Give the backbone structure.
Amino acid sequence: MGGMSNDYNRTSSGPADSRALSEMARRGITPDIVSLAGLLSVDDQEGKRLTGQERTSGRYDGIAIPNIRPGQTQPRAWTIRRYSPDTERRSNGTRREIRKYMTEPGRSNLFYFVPGTKTEWLSDKSIPILFVEGEFKCLAMWIAAFWGVTDGRPRFLPIGLRGVWGWRGTTGKSWGADGDRRDERGPINDFEQVLWGGRKALLFFDSNVHTNDSVQAARSQLAINLRMLGAFSIIVDMPDIDGLNGPDDLLAQQGVEYVLELIELAFLEHEASQHEDAPISKSVERENFLWSLVGSTGKILAPIRILFELAGFKNDHSRLLNGLLEVKPYDRRITLQVVKGWVADRCRVSDSTLSRDIDKLKAEQEEKGIAMLEYIPGFVSYKTNPPRRVASKFKRLFLRYALEAIDLAMEIEGRYYTNETLRFACEQVFARIPRQAVKVADGKSSAKLEKRKKQLSVEDLESQLLALEEQLIARMVADEWGDEEITARLDELAKSRQARIDLVRQSRKSECDDYHEEINMGVTSEDLSPEDPDSPGRHFDDQAAPSSVTENHTFTARPMASEDYQQQDLNASRAGPDSSGHCDGCSARLVWGSSFCASCGARYQPEYWKVERGEKFHASD
């Protein structure tokens, strides 16, 4: 132990002095919490003994913090907060303090539990866990945990880490390939003291998590490890307030109520996004495999393309999607908090080009009513020097949908699924995607949309009535109707259905008659635009007929239903097309199956047409 005695309680210094109490008060920690934690003031000699630094230079007087395991009374380790830590000169000429918190050499990282933590709280999954950086921040959050509590049960249980990577360390020894003993590193053994399955875990790191890549990676990796243990990780972000670094500073300057409100807001955001943070697969092994695919864009882009195709997206957004997949492949989060410039670097474009790509995707999402990506832009705060950049939020909904489709395909056919199985899985996932309100550009397009919705074909009407008939049968069977009552209701429904079909056909017949009158009145080809729904040349039939090009204009033929014109005086002029497919009256070229001549207005019944080998046209007798 580096010359350290096993009797941790033997110190040459007494309780916390005025300097230590003043330091704690600056962090919002009261004297009763100092007494509960067993903080001591130690001189230089005792500080070196507790940390095993007897042969080193520098001052080690400061505040001694005992680390006591829940359910025990003796400290298992000591940490010294030095009053005069070492300093280091940076490349820009400034200095910073280093080695402020010291512990004995060779000691693995440990969780810090506030003395008084009960073991039954560690097994109670209804009590959330709150991770913070350091012992003092843990003591400050202990005050918030019991603020206003009357039953003696904390609203959350704070745990302190020895730095952002303090949840990892040496966990044991193993034998190497050449027979030597090696250290095993990974999540520390203290994780085993807590029952994690279904528990909520809050990650409340310092404000530099938004600017320091290592701190951000440590938090992300901790969230991944907690998910693997079955917990739900919840991020609590420090607000952008000048002079505040961690949760203890926030509690001291803004008050306990402000901290509790911030934590409650994180709980609410977690409830709103519980679906996206939930595990994708029921199997832990398959969950790991799915997230390993995020780094291999070729595998993950296949279901993404199918989903965008099913949604009807016209533009190719692969550049933006690729960039979002490559920003942080190690982070198992649907929502990324990153600076937009990092995404632009991964996309290999400028910030302005990336903004245009985002706007194109957002515009198409509004048009289709399906959200594949949610974006909240970041900003730059000039309150600090240098200015602080606040990260943007990218909610990669398309990623979760794609992983869900792959998980379903693997469940159906195994890891080596076919493209047909993947498409089927994408269709099932796409059917579950929530739809949003479609944004209409103007009133004119909205009126056209409503007009097209009303123009139902006879087949659509019949299918709708058949569906209503099936629902009626199911309802009648559920209500135990008799056979006679069911037969009577079905007869009524059949009559109503036929009446509605006849009404639609009659309406279309009258529209066709109006069109023929316009033809005879000299409507030109420019007035007959089949693309404009308001044009008299629009199709009134269920299927579009082929086009015919004449010398003067282009016309789209519409075959008439024979039963609609059987009672008319069509037999009065039984002019028919000649053998070459031209009109008897004006010799204009006719479209096969057309019911009249677009040039002179002569009408033909469909039964006049027949096709023989050689594609010759003949009139029937």
Q: What stands out?
A: The CA atoms of residues 174 and 180 lie 8 Å apart. The chain has 19 helices and 21 strands. The chain has a mean pLDDT of 75. The radius of gyration is 38 Å.
